[in-house]
Amino acid sequence: MLSGLFKFFIPQAILTPPRLKEGTILPILGFERQIVFRHDIRRKVTITNQQIIISTPGQDFAKVLEAGLKDHIRQIFQDLCQDLAGRLGTHFNKIAIRDTRSRWGSCSSNGNLSFCWRLIFAPPSVVKYLAAHEVSHLKHMNHSRIFWKAVASLDPDYAIARQWLRHNGQGLLRIKF
Ligand SMILES: [Zn+2]
């Protein structure tokens, strides 16, 4: 079960950070998908079950990809945090997506949540754990036992995700285009 869930994860990308070209494999939310370049008037990124299609009229594929992935993960955190905050009887102000290297997420005292966009390369369970962690800080601004109880109430399997992040998190940072 565990290995099935996390099997295809990053090992390859950790050892050899992939260069962005047509056919490059990127792990997106737990599934490896293949890069496709497409010339189009509109700049956009389309994520299908097997592909990541980067459309642009120019050659700025890397820039378009990064912007598209940030939009994608922002929407996922927005929806997730909305749901989790509701379950905890609290609410957040807004969500920022950053390129942080020292922390995966944060919660400010005025209710702003922020997340590292590279979490898009992690399994969905890890994304969920980070959302549960930061949403729980809306109620408890510390890492007390009561805080971890709140995290567990939102994400009973959080310990597995936390462990995954500890072992593989550095690999996420190594992926660049
Ligand atoms: Zn924390």
Characterization of the model:
With 177 residues, the chain is of the alpha/beta class. It has one domain (2-174): Metalloproteases ("zincins"), catalytic domain (Zincin-like). 44% of the residues lie in helices and 19% in strands. A four-stranded mixed sheet has the order 1-2-4-3, covered by helices on one side. Strands 5-7-6 form a three-stranded mixed sheet, covered by helices on one side. β1 and β2 (31-39) form a beta hairpin. It is elongated. The model is unreliable at 1-8 (pLDDT under 50). Zinc ion is lined by residues 133, 137, 143.
How do the helices and strands line up, and which of them pair or pack?
Layout: H1 2-6, H2 11-15, E1 25-28, E2 31-39, E3 44-47, E4 51-56, H3 61-87, E5 95-98, E6 105-107, E7 113-116, H4 124-137, H5 145-154, H6 158-174
Parallel strand pairs: 2-4, 5-7
Antiparallel strand pairs: 1-2, 3-4, 6-7
Helix pairs in contact: 3-4, 4-5, 4-6
Bound molecules: zinc ion.
Q: Count the strands?
A: 7
Rough outline: elongated
Number of helical elements? 6
CATH topology: Zincin-like
Report the order of strands and helices: HHEEEEHEEEHHH
Q: Kindly estimate the percentage of residues that lie in beta strands according to DSSP.
A: 15-25%
Ligands in the model, by name, code or SMILES, are:
zinc ion
Which class do the helix and strand fractions yield? alpha/beta
Oligomer: single chain
User: Reading side by side through the largest sheet, how are the strands ordered?
Assistant: 1-2-4-3
CATH superfamily: Metalloproteases ("zincins"), catalytic domain
Q: Quick one: CATH class?
A: Alpha Beta
